[in-house]
Amino acid sequence: MTQVIRSSDCENSPRNQRVEQIALALLGAGDLPDSVLSEGAVWDRNGGAISGRAAIQTLRATLPRCEEIRVDQVVSHGKAGTASGTLRRPGQRDRLFCHVIRFTSTAASEIAQIVSFEHAGGAHGR
Q1: Is the pTM of this model over 0.70?
Q2: Checking DSSP bridges between strand 68-77 and strand 3-6, what pairing results, if any?
Q3: Residue 5: pLDDT band by 50, 70, 90 thresholds?
Q4: Does domain 3-120 have CATH number 3.30.2130.10?
Q5: Four-residue CA torsion sign, 100, 115, 32, 71
Q6: Which of the four pLDDT bands, split at 50, 70 and 90, describes residue 126?
């Protein structure tokens, strides 16, 4: 099971909580229902972009699990939100992550695009 550590700054709005839940699901800690992704959603990430709800869900199911995810910042405004922090996978050093999530509307009910970054050398140096 993945341990999730949240900054208390991230719990200040329902929209931020939604963005955080989506980011965690992209890292394998939680569910991402099909209804949250638009049919033509795009996920730009290390290794290239993939298009379509089914392709995103298939890729998500194959990603290696995280031992720990530390969510340091979640911000949302209008049709977009970001979540960032550090993650650790078994046998690896910490990595920085950031997910930028663009919704189809300001209602933030359906995702149009996700841009994800990971970078070696996490801030906590484990």
Answers
A1: yes
A2: parallel
A3: confident
A4: no
A5: negative
A6: very low
